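Dear colleagues,

As part of the handover before I leave the project, I'm documenting each prediction I ran so the next person doesn't have to rerun anything. This entry is a single chain, and its sequence is reproduced below.
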Amino acid sequence: MSTPVVLRSKGSFRNEVEAGPHRWVLDEPADAGGAGDGPTPYDMLAAALGGCTSMTLHYYAQREKLPLEGVDVTVTHDRQNAKDCSDCSTQAGWIHRFKVEITLHGPLDDAQRQRLLAIAARCPVAKTLQSEIRIDEVLAA
């Protein structure tokens, strides 16, 4: 099991987050009732997907000795009502879509770029988001 991530809030949307030795704040923007003191939970989810994508590409490029010098990843997120999605199997609730735009830097040929694009989909966070997910909420003692 992974190290727990602990969040604490006191009467507002602002959450103080602890993950091992790391600390940061999550919040909602002012127009949504927060103070805008930090990224939103969906910003963090997009960052996790983008970071994992970049790390996966660097790992593969190093292993295969590809001349990858850098990766820029831009992740956007939106959702649509499932009943409005003609190519989705889910017909109730919301369909969340993440667009992961990748810029590869370095003297890569077209075949290497296409291979890296295919490898990007293998990032563990992307695989998790595409899998069945179960969340068990329990009250702590």
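The longest strand covers residues 70-81. Helices lie at 41-64, 110-120, 124-129.

All the best with the project,
I.
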